[in-house]
């Protein structure tokens, strides 16, 4: 079969099928390589779940395909993925924090890994050295641009990641460059690093950020109050603009900002839901089914609004029609169910977004993961029984078969 026809066929495949096709024979591998090199594969892909499991070795992660309802096993580079925290995913890349609280970008399909600037270059973190000059602990400063909100704390190398990081996302800003945006404590502040940077850049004075996206050359970030601020990170001086100055009342919630397929912005409020596991019977693990969980929430209602930046107002949306939302500790997405037929229209696919991994484990807090029907307000499981680790939540991510160097030099 001519390679041009193969490439036309391959361009319609989701990543698992595309990778399998590329391993059939030399000519198919050549078509696969060309597809990835020139970025001609289907994009965005149907989201997948990526997770680790206590039953697997430390370097193994799993991908559950929402399209195929099938699980794939991946071996990822050191340090062991099972010992890292997954603090975000976007554009096919994971952002992880290892046992020294150092961050890496990882592409689970290509196995590429990129070290990000050291955590000690962030405004609020400084190293504590032992007698040999090696970093043994971190000093964490609790300050904002306006005030010091508490005395500094000293954390072990592995503990800092649990107390400091909230969410991190990778955005390609142009051919040849990217930025990684980090939402961190105290009080949900922002820092970012460009490709090639040796340190993180702090973005004061705003705080209480919950989510961000990159659109039309600007970073859009939303706060817990519903305030939306844009950042132009393209120059040596960062410029900001408040496009929606709201101070909404809120409870225990998560807030997301999403771009829909038409280019409009959506603001989504999700109530914080706590699910406690039923006590395990002797000899049985704490990996319970939904019927054993106790739901401690008023409802599964999620509030969705269309953002009108010109008027500074929000218009509530009662349903998504043929669209579907993906929300959690990863890039927030809104896709057309007509184009991605294996996902359900008018549903919100949720993964757990509780900020502290260790607190989840101590509270024996069951991970909130499932598909919410916006019409019935009923939550269904992605997959049952749940195969992932009890404390480390899986992430929704779109797989990316393209290597970073190819993405930079196309």
UniProtKB/TrEMBL annotation:
Coiled coil: none annotated. Transmembrane segments: none annotated. Residues 1-46 form the F-box domain. SUPFAM superfamilies: F-box domain. PANTHER family: F-BOX DOMAIN CONTAINING PROTEIN, EXPRESSED (PTHR44586). This is F-box domain-containing protein. It comes from Urochloa decumbens.
